[in-house]
Amino acid sequence: MDVILFGPPGAGKGTQASAVCEALGVPHVSTGDIFRRHLREGTELGLLAKSYMSKGELVPDSTVVDIVATRLSESDAAGGVLFDGFPRTVNQATLLDRWLRQNGRKVDVVLNLVVDDKVVHARLSGRRSCLSCGATYHVLHQAPAVEGVCDRCGSDVVQRDDDSEGTVWKRLETYHSQTAPVLGWARGVCRVVDIDANRPISEVGQAVVAALSS
Ligand code: AP5
Question: Atom 48 (ligand 1): residue with closest C-alpha?
Answer without folding.
Answer: 12
